[in-house]
Amino acid sequence: MECRTPNDVYLLLKSSDFITHDLEQAFDSCSSPHPPSPLANNTIHSLETKPDDGNSSIPYHLILRKTIPALATSLEFRCFVRARTLLCLCQRDLNHYDFLADSVGSLRVQIQRFFDENLKDSFEDADFIFDVYVPPPHQR
User: Are 135 and 112 in contact (CB under 8 A)?
Assistant: First the structure.
């Protein structure tokens, strides 16, 4: 969706169920990555206790991108990285495009090359997600 004014952004966020969930209940189904040992200090800790709600310390960021009308959404991909290894990529647009079937191999190679040369060691965090656009003729 294209927003032209700050008010457009505000209305979009205000009407979104996803943003409300992400801000208020993002960690409801999460558990601590390292639950306390039941034998620590000879005390049995309940694993049923809900982790401390640390939402107030989370630095939220609103990331906006410029709308480019000529952008072919069929060529936007979301890429997932774990331990500085490109694990997988998927098309961002949920529609099926027949012409992409012939390009899967070359797109995969190009995105892997771009990752290796530009992103692999550039982030402090070794696990991240990035979006990439491969413009026609799919060789840039």
Answer: no
